[in-house]
Amino acid sequence: MPQAPRHGPPAAKSLAVPQARRQVRGLRTRDAILARAVDIASVEGLEGLTIGYLAEQLGMSKSGLFAHFGSKEELQLATVEAARQLFIDKVTRPAISAPKGMPRLWRLIDYWLAMVEKNVLKGGCFFSAASFEFDSRRGVVRDRIAAIMHEWIAVIAGAIQKAQKAGHLDPKADPMRLAFEIHAIALGAHWAYQLLDDRQAYSRARAIARDKLRSVATAQCPRLP
What we know:
By secondary structure, the chain is mostly helical. The chain has helices at residues 8-44, 51-58, 62-66, 72-95, 102-117, 126-134, 140-165, 175-195, 201-215.
């Protein structure tokens, strides 16, 4: 016996398509908001990033922003995550396409410095600024910034260990100490570039990092740029 036509599923599908489109538009809007938020926070700091100020800069209503972020803290955390993704896109992912060993390690350092040198963000290195802003504060925003910085130092230390396994660096060198030194060199460059307007800061930082790596390089190490 033929069954009666079912009208439920087609109607549900017709409703689902516009809803999916609205969700995509919402995600695109959120991404655009966060891209602007990262740039503003790199200059004004995360504490200077309020829903009201961001709405004013974007020409949006506060209620429109509240639909995406229910509080200042939620906005700050979302901004930190957006900054992390930007760093991955500009530094980590392109660098790991290099061969393991010294080429990859050097590219991580070089791309990190270049991201600020090329003024990707108006305020320079987002995480350097955020680290100084929140280092003596307590709370979830500070904890997330600290976790991301631990993650980044671990990436550098991991690249050093791979360079050792590749026979490019002295196996007796302490990966964490070397990662600490590289990180300190970069932070010094960020500070000099932003605060002192020292336009030689990054060429100087590269030269210092290069000398440091050469001091623990082996005879099999590829030549540094």
